[in-house]
C-alpha cells in the first residue's frame, strides 16, 4: 500500500485540486470561442 501512495499521491492531489477548475475552464472555453472568432474578422 505504501508503494501505491508513493506513486499516486501527487497525481490524485493534483486531480482533486485542479480537476474542477479544468472542467469549468473546458466548459466555458467552448462558449467563449464564438465571440472570439467574430473579433478575429475585424
What topology does this entry show?
Elements: H1 2-40
Task: Note down, in words, how this protein is organized.
This protein has 42 residues and is mostly helical. Helices cover 93% and strands 0% of the residues. It is built from one helix and no strands. The radius of gyration is 18 Å and the shape is rod-shaped. The model has no long low-confidence stretch (mean pLDDT 80).
What are the main properties of this structure?
single chain; 42 residues; mainly alpha; 1 helix; rod-shaped
Query: How large a portion of the residues is in β-strands, by DSSP E?
Result: under 5%
Distance between the termini: 58 Å
Compressed to H and E, one letter per element, the order equals: H
Q: Can you give the helix content as a percent range?
A: over 70%
Global structural class: mainly alpha
CA-atom Rg in angstroms: 18 Å
Assembly type of the chains comes to: single chain
- DSSP strand count: 0
Low-confidence segments: none
Largest sheet: none
Helical segment count: 1
Envelope shape = rod-shaped
Outline:
The chain has one helix at 2-40. It starts with a helix and ends with a helix. It has 1 helix and no strands.
Amino acid at each position: 500500500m505504501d508503494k501505491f501512495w508513493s506513486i499516486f499521491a501527487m497525481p490524485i492531489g493534483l486531480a482533486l485540486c485542479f480537476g474542477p477548475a479544468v472542467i469549468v475552464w473546458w466548459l466555458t472555453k467552448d462558449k467563449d470561442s464564438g465571440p472570439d472568432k467574430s473579433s478575429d474578422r475585424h
